[in-house]
Write a structure and sequence with these properties.
Elements lengths: L14 H13 L19 H18 L3 H12 L1 E2 L6 E2 L7 H17 L12
Helix pairs in contact: 2-3, 2-4
């Protein structure tokens, strides 16, 4: 079954507007059993995070000779497996929120540290 997502923001619409729009959404769904879950939307990763991520990959490239784009694909395949999907798939980094993206970068940095590859962070540079 395809997953249906109903997004809303209580900051952008009133509860009355939300109820009316959600009612219209429900009218489009066929009879059956469903689970409705509500989760607070997390901020998407920032441009600064993305810039830092690629800088990290460039440092790894410089020390290993493996291209940044290859490293990107390798790390995604290792750390971003979505087992929650019907068929396991590799998530895109663009699907990660700020916290998840930080955790992903931290895993990569720890893995590199364990392998003897040193990553310089902006505050480390003199």
């Amino acid at each position: 079954m395809a997953r249906k997502i109903f997004r809303f923001s209580l900051q952008e619409e009133s509860k009355a507007q939300l109820i009316q729009r959600f009612s219209g959404f429900l009218n489009k769904i066929r009879d059956g059993k469903y689970i409705i879950s509500i989760e607070k939307q997390q901020r998407e990763r920032s441009g600064e995070q993305n810039k830092f991520y690629w800088a990290v990959l460039k440092q790894i490239e410089a020390q290993t000779g493996q291209l940044s784009k290859e490293l990107h694909e390798t790390f995604k395949a290792k750390h971003l497996i979505d087992n929650g999907a019907r068929i396991a798939r590799i998530k895109s980094t663009s699907e990660l929120n700020v916290i998840e993206f930080n955790q992903y970068i931290n895993k990569i940095c720890q893995e590199m540290f364990d392998s003897g590859i040193i990553i310089e962070f902006p505050e480390d540079r003199s």
